[in-house]
Amino acid sequence: MLYGGGKIPPKNLKQKKMITLKNKVKDWYVKEYPTDEMGKDIPNNLTFKDINEAPELVYGMLGNAYDSIIRERIFECISEINQKPYDVIYEAWLNG
Questions:
Q1: What residues form DSSP beta bridges with 24?
Q2: Is the residue at 78 inside a domain?
Q3: What pTM does this model have?
């Protein structure tokens, strides 16, 4: 696991609640990026915690939503939740 426990305010004004590691990635993603059709392919039960604990497995966790832009957006959100630089989760993914 990288870090945890932080919260971030939603970037999109449509989202009213704080985002935590317990949130489901798909719920957040489709609200934050409504024009990205691939977001609907993110597994329903996948949480930020799942990815935070094993970032090297992110593409397997994302299933058919395997696009690198999706991964980057999710990593950016996790870095904000954890209040750590993006490089922390990125390096954990690279060095798995």
A1: 47
A2: yes
A3: 0.83
CA distance 40 to 80: 23
Q: How many domains does the chain have?
A: 1
- How far apart are alpha carbons 68 and 62 in whole angstroms? 11
Per-residue pLDDT of 33-67, as tens digits, reads 999 999 999 999 999 999 999 999 999 999 999 89
Q: pLDDT (tens digit, 9 = 90+) per residue, 14-40?
A: 454 689 999 999 999 999 999 999 999
Domain containing 43 equals: 25-95
- The reply to whether 32 falls in a domain is yes
